[in-house]
Each structure stands twice: as C-alpha cells, then as structure tokens.
Design brief:
Layout: E1 9-18, E2 23-25, H1 26-32, H2 37-44, E3 48-50, H3 57-69, E4 81-85, H4 96-103, E5 110-114, H5 120-133, E6 140-147, H6 157-160, E7 165-175, E8 181-189, E9 197-198, H7 210-214, E10 221-222, H8 224-245, E11 255-258, H9 263-273, H10 284-287, H11 294-304, E12 313-320, E13 324-331
Parallel strand pairs: 4-5, 4-6, 11-12
Antiparallel strand pairs: 1-7, 2-3, 6-7, 8-13, 9-10, 12-13
The protein binds coenzyme A.
C-alpha cells in the first residue's frame, strides 16, 4: 500500500540482460547423469540453460548493465548506486558490486551486494527503491546476477538440471507520479528454512578445507520436496495478499512475474491469484533457474517483445533459500 507521506516513487526506466552463449540442453544431462528430457521437462518446465565458460558473476552483471546502457541516455558515470543481488559473488570480498562498478566505469557510484538467493532481486529492488524514495539518490542500478554453474554439482541429478547462469539489470529513477513505479511490497524471511536449501561450506562456519571438498559442501544442497511445498504456499499466498490489499482483481493485473524455479510452482501461484496462463511471464524453458536474474530477465524479454505496456500492473513474486520470499506490485512506466 502506498505510504501517505511519500513524495516520490521509484520506477524502472531501463532494462538489460546478459546470457552467455553456451547452451546445456536436456540431452546433455542425459549423457552425464541418470535422467531424461521427458522427466526434466515434465517435472520442471526446463528445456535448456546457459553456462558461462570463462569469467565470473561480475562479467555477467557488467554485460547486463552495458546492455541496459545501450537503451537509455543515462551514462554509467551518472549512476549513484549499484546493488548486485547474488549468491555466487566472484569472491567473498570485495563485493561483486564493486567489481561491476569498475567494469562499467560507474565512477560516481557506491555499491554493495545483497544476498537473498532467489528472492535477491525483489529484496534489492525494494532496497534501491527506498534510496530513491528518500530523495537521497536519483539513479540506482539494481542487478540480479548468478553464475550458478560455479556451485552446481554436475553429478547430482536432483539439482544439476535446474540451474543456469545469467544476469539482468534495471535502472531505478524517481517519479512524482505516485500511481506508477514500485507501489507496494510484502517481503518475508523465515530463517528456520536454512536446512532445506544451502551451500554449507566456504563461509566462516565451514571454511574451505580438503574435508569440505571431499564432502561436496561447496555445492548447492536442496531438499527439493520440502522447498517445493513451502515455495508453492509462500509465493501463492503473498501474491494473492498483495493483490487483495491493493484492491486488484485478476482483470487488473497485466502479468504475474514469478521467480522461475519450477513451472509447476509458477502454475500453482497463477491459479491461486486467479490469473490465466497468458498473463504469466515465463522463460524457464530457455534459461532454467538463474536465481537472482530470473525476474528482471522476464521483464526485459517481455518488454522488448512489446508485450508489456506503460500503465500495466505487474505482480512480481519470488521464493528462495533462507527461506526468503515476497511480492512487489509495480506499475510499468516505460513507453
Ligand atoms: N531425473 C530423473 N529423476 C530424478 C531427477 C532427474 N533429474 N531428479 C530427481 N529424480 C528422481 C528422484 O530421485 C526421485 O526418485 P525416488 O522416488 O526413486 O527417490 C523422483 O525423481 C522424485 O523426486 P522428487 O524430489 O519427488 O521430484 P519432484 O517432483 O519434487 O521434483 C524438483 C524435484 C527439484 C524439480 C522439485 O522438487 C522442485 O522444483 N523443488 C523446488 C525448487 C525451488 O523452488 N527452489 C527454490 C528456489 S531455488
């Protein structure tokens, strides 16, 4: 809901994305683990995903930002702040956002990373919006970027088929029209979910050692069934609630923009909202789960395909490790 004493909203004024050229299709996974195209497609909705062969998350992120700058008159040196949502930083420090700042030559920007896994983009978008709404900053780049291949165990059929590498970026700027841009958000954490989806080693709890490598603790672990259940409920409930409290019916919503983790979770969320399939942004078939990049990539592709119009009501929704989840209601403002 719109706060009564707000003077300005933050709104998305430009978008960009980068996916590496190398494609891993389902046939590739048939050769490396005990799986098949039919199982992957029917259980997840994924046909292929991308893999970055050389470089790191900051390269994906910089690629997305440079793609964005091709579409706007705003120059990198005008950016005030860069927020990179990622769980696959190039290094633990410095922040990947610092590396991106240097790679895109955004000399005036301060920058930091935000870690909220698959909800990372939503958490970063709201954080960036607050910087704008406060009046302190005019131009904030919000980037979702993950090189999931760097933490994927390609001998584990439960997880390796799910993830891909990608990045996408949006530019936030102020608008005095309080009826457009980022209008409402509901963001949540339940830290009790920590044991269902995590990467156990590499942090201060279990620093890298021969033992952590032997135990494969530097890879994603996921209890797929447990996460599936809470993800369906979390995403569906929060999307329904944000519509309700903003007085929106399914007719008012142009698109649900869900995190792309599993097509069955997306379908369940749309059903709970009463939104038909044509009103759901989907690209999981091409890219798999790219963690923080999924939602801005959907926005970028649908906008560039002419499917999103100024004034459209969009409901963004995500669920991820933590657990973290939430929804953002925004009204699109680019012509
Ligand atoms: N190919 C073939 N079989 C596979 C497989 C694969 N790639 N991966 C798992 N299986 C098997 C399992 O071993 C299991 O076999 P079993 O019954 O003999 O033990 C069987 O398929 C069913 O496994 P299950 O875990 O019940 O499958 P599922 O229908 O739940 O689908 C996921 C698995 C991971 C796709 C699904 O649970 C999921 O999407 N979870 C949530 C992901 C998510 O939202 N994450 C949060 C954000 S990242």
């Amino acid at each position: 809901m719109q706060s009564k004493n707000k003077l300005r909203n933050a709104t998305i004024t430009a978008v960009g994305m980068y996916v590496p050229p190398k494609i891993l299709d389902n046939k590739y996974f048939e050769q490396i683990v005990d799986t098949n195209d039919e199982w992957i497609l029917s259980r997840t909705g994924i046909s292929e995903r991308r893999m970055l062969e050389e470089g790191a998350t900051s390269d994906l992120a910089a690629g997305a930002c440079l793609d964005l700058f091709k579409t706007t008159s705003v120059k990198p040196e005008e950016i005030d702040c860069i927020i990179v949502a990622t769980v696959t930083p190039d290094m633990l420090f410095p922040a990947t956002a610092c590396l991106v700042q240097n790679k895109i030559n955004a000399k005036s920007a301060w920058a930091f990373d935000l870690s909220a896994a698959c909800s990372g983009f939503l958490f970063a978008l709201k954080t960036g919006a607050c910087l704008i709404e406060s009046g302190s900053y005019q131009k904030v780049l919000v980037v979702g970027a993950d090189k999931m291949s760097s933490i994927t165990d390609y001998t584990d059929r439960n997880t390796c088929i799910l993830f891909g590498d990608a990045a996408s970026a949006v530019l936030l700027e102020p608008t005095e029209n309080l009826e457009e841009g980022i209008i409402d958000q509901m963001l949540f954490v339940d830290g009790a979910g920590k044991d269902a989806l995590y990467m156990k080693a590499g942090g201060s709890l279990n620093p890298a050692s021969h033992d952590t490598i032997d135990k494969k603790w530097h890879y994603i672990y996921q209890d797929g069934k447990a996460v599936f259940k809470v993800a369906v409920k979390g995403m569906a409930d929060v999307s329904f609630e944000i519509m309700k409290r903003n007085g929106l019916t399914s007719d008012d919503v142009a698109y649900l923009v869900p995190h792309q983790a599993n097509l069955r979770i997306i379908d369940a969320t749309a059903e709970r909202m009463g939104v038909s399939k044509e009103k759901v942004m989907i690209n999981i078939n091409k890219y798999g789960n790219t963690t923080a990049a999924t939602i801005p990539m959907c926005l970028t592709e649908y906008y560039r395909d002419g499917k999103v119009k100024k004034g459209d009501n969009l409901i963004l929704a995500a669920f991820g490790a933590g657990y973290t989840w939430g929804s953002i209601y925004l009204k699109w403002s680019i012509d």
